[in-house]
Design brief:
18% of the residues lie in helices and 28% in strands. By secondary structure, it is an alpha/beta fold. The protein has 2 domains: 243 residues, QueA-like (3-Layer(aba) Sandwich), CATH 3.40.1780; 79 residues, Thrombin, subunit H (Beta Barrel).
């Protein structure tokens, strides 16, 4: 399957640079995955399409202020470090710019020595392993020195870092937000619960691979990055119950989708578990659990457009994206939403 089949033309001005004042006032395109029929709504209208007994699956990961700016101790040259995965003994896998100047042994100072890092290894795709030293609590230092790791297509400064967190963010560990969840308010979630919809919380720590372009010509050759996930016994029970009783499982975001599809057994059942997933969902994939998906509008030729196309069909999805451009929807992380339903 050709990567170029998942391309579309997007005017740059449709890339949302700032979050809306009110989370649930973003626009919502509703796409029927069977017929391809499209409707236009406001996000808070989502409650009208949810039914008692449905299970809404949300990703409660929390974004850490993972972008650090420092200087090389030897030369004073400026260095940007993005924390990706935490290892043992305060060692992190990181993305470093400029990477070529950060060979093994390079020492980087952050916050005038409040935090110091030493490059101790080079791994896949040139990422650096950095061992940090500091006095105090790492999370408090990171909160003081770090910045939110906004995607490269967002050039505006984020005035309130909480706007790049969902209102239900709980477990720290992501280098990017599960952006479909940014549209929910606490009030909207309470309204959904009051309607008799179960809400199951899972955790997947989103990695930077989400934003990496697919560099191969055929999608079958693409290798996904690995991400850590956790599913509690309570969440597994809620999702299993919805399937057993004939109700829908509706994932908020591709991260929630990848979590439950990774963990499901061959019978579409879940149990309490945790692990690493490299699942790559593209057309031809048979979903084990997921029925419907709430998601944002994704980058051209991205693995996320491919996942959405696996659920609703490439022709329906590309037509919906064309309609979204025509109707001037806002795209990507701070943009509008789509509900793929049946």
């Amino acid at each position: 399957m050709d990567v170029k089949d998942f391309d579309y033309e997007l005017p740059e001005e449709l890339i949302a640079q700032d979050p809306l004042e009110h989370r649930d006032e973003s626009r919502l395109m509703m796409l029927n995955k069977t017929t391809g029929e499209i409707e236009h709504h406001i996000f808070r209208d989502i409650v009208d399409r949810l039914e008692p007994g449905d299970c809404l699956v949300i990703n409660n990961t929390k974004v850490i202020p993972a972008r650090l700016y420092g200087v090389r101790e030897e030369t004073g040259a400026k260095i940007e470090v993005l924390l990706l995965k935490r290892g043992e003994d305060d060692t992190w896998e990181t993305l470093v710019k400029p990477g070529k100047k950060c060979r093994i042994g390079t020492r980087i100072s952050f916050g005038e020595g409040l935090l110091t890092g030493e490059v101790v290894g080079v791994v896949e795709e040139g990422n650096r392993l950095i061992k940090f030293t500091y006095d105090g609590i790492f999370e408090e230092i990171l909160d003081r020195l770090g910045q939110m790791p906004l995607p490269p297509y967002i050039t505006h400064e984020l005035k309130d870092r909480n706007r790049y967190q969902t209102v239900y963010a709980r477990h720290e560990g992501s280098a990017a937000a599960p952006t479909a969840g940014l549209h929910f308010t606490k009030e909207l979630l309470e309204e959904i619960r009051a309607k008799g919809v179960d809400i199951a919380e899972v955790t997947l720590h989103v990695g930077l691979g989400t934003f990496r372009p697919v560099k191969v010509e055929t999608i079958e050759e693409h290798h996904m990055h690995s991400e850590f996930y956790m599913i509690s016994a309570e969440a597994a029970e809620k999702i299993n119950r919805a399937k057993d009783e004939g109700h829908r499982v509706i994932c908020v975001g591709t991260t929630s989708c990848r979590t439950i599809e990774s963990a499901a057994d061959e019978n579409g059942r879940l149990k309490e578990c945790s692990g690493w997933t490299e699942i790559f969902i593209y057309p031809g994939y048979r979903f084990k659990i997921l029925d419907c998906l709430i998601t944002n509008f994704h980058l051209p030729q991205s693995t996320l457009v491919m996942l959405v196309s696996a659920l609703a069909g490439k022709e329906h999805v590309m037509a919906a994206y064309e309609e979204a451009v025509k109707e001037r929807y806002r795209f990507f992380s701070f943009g509008d939403a789509m509900f793929i339903w049946e």
